[in-house]
TrEMBL record:
TM ranges: 16-37
InterPro entries: DUF3352
One Pfam family of this chain: DUF3352
Name of this chain's protein: DUF3352 domain-containing protein
Native source organism of the sequence: Leptolyngbya boryana CZ1
Keywords, alphabetical: Membrane, Transmembrane, Transmembrane helix
Domain of life according to the entry: Bacteria
Amino acid sequence: MNAQTKPNSTKQRPPLPLTIGAAAALVGGGAIAFWALTRQQLNVMPIGANAIPQDALMVVSVSTDTGKWQQLREFGTPRSQAAFDQSLVQFRDRFLKNRGLEYARDIQPWIGKEVTMAFLPPQAGVTVPNPGQPAAPPNAQPTVMVVPIADALKAKDTLEKSPATQGAKWTERDYKGVKVRENQESANQSTSIAVLDTTQVLVANNPNAIERAIDTVKEGKSLAQTPGYGEALTQIQEENAIARLYVNIPAAANTSAANSSRPIPPQTLAQLQQNQGLAATAKLTNEGIQFKGISWLRPDSQRKLNTENTAKTIPTRLPTDTLMMASGGNLKQFWQDYTQGSASNPIQFVNPEALRQGIRTTVGLDLEKDLLNWMQGEYSLALLPAPQGAPAALPASLVFMVQTSDRRAAEATLKKLDEVMATKYAFKVEEAKVEGQSIVNWSLPAASVNITRGWLDGNVAFLSLGAPIASAILPKPTKALAENELFRKSMQSELAPHNGNFFVDMDRVLKLQNFPLLQIPAANRTVLEAISSIGVTAAVTSDRTSRYDVFVGLKKGNNPGALP
């Protein structure tokens, strides 16, 4: 038996040379794959990533290709073009003209393809005075700019001959073997410049900030070493990007908490610390700007993202003339995520506690128990134009749709609402039929208030406030939003499946009259008038990453002249 099995068992083992060869191939292949991945991630890093401290709050990289900026200036209305040019001039003057520099004379002859600006935590701008000296006021925001050198000889020659760098106002010092030139323009404004290996120029607005950058190059943790950063950038890489952005969410949250007048609960801050970063790229197209964004969690995060991407049908349920819409895959989950981070969010669309209290006081319902418990499906909030013949006082209707996970519970809650509206607020509550389907109208003729509720496809509840639009969505639209050409252009996304969309037909929204929810300040209208549409697609791509595709359609404007 042994004599027979031994040859067989020996036969099943591969020869030693083959085993060694296979192991070598695996190790070698893994090494090659690791090298290729590392190279790929290095290639997508912004210029100067090795000089930017890892605790930078925000990092912005912009292209130095004047053709791209000229193309961007060609978009918009005459008013928005003038406003954009003014912003460019202010940016130029803030960083260059106020320091005696001229871009065409001093920078353009030698600069590389991209400039990176890093905004550091406030403590990076604190200067420790010498004994007996008063502390100098810190800069408002410590900033380091990394300017790549495409032509080292030309850079040296240009900067040495520039009137901006001549005179006794500049001093020199050595910091860890790097020559630093400085100019103290005022008590709280200075400029520090250092050249790194003839490939990069560092420019900072205070001495401490440039020292942080030099420390980072020599021995510190840099932006390039941020967990998940390189991998995230490979997912949103754009060869011809005009701008790139990175936000350090934990560092930004800490700074916000330290400087906020509104205390941030420790549990909320801890929740934000689970995040690592948010990054985005912007690319110009013939019709506007295409953004790709990504957010990701820290490697040691206890939090995991829900990977369900279930937003599918809303664009087919809304009519083609929809003015604006926002949709998602699970309303209950969205509310839970929103309330967890709302305390530290500087832009709060809705105060969670105020909404809870308002619903409890006005209609006697518990938001979570009576409403959100059965709202675990796809949802949307949309703005629809009034049909022909509608009163001028009702130019549009706000329409809410949600796919219910428990129709019986939903019906019970909606019946309670019918009773409250009739008994407490004296609304006229009556059933009606639209295209053979039952609806319930709540009306208050004296106040021109009209609310309609009903069902689509058996499990999608809808509620409209404003103009009577039930016939536009029941039993289904004659032509759906998904077929709208502007909607299709605005949803230029590779994300499929996804878990939410946002769309606005800006031209038609701005022309909407007598609608109290869209009273836009004149200053904001200047920018918005340049936009034809906005489209956003969001998706959870793993239990640690979320992706966003955003398209901003822009109007073609006049051919711009030279900047003033």
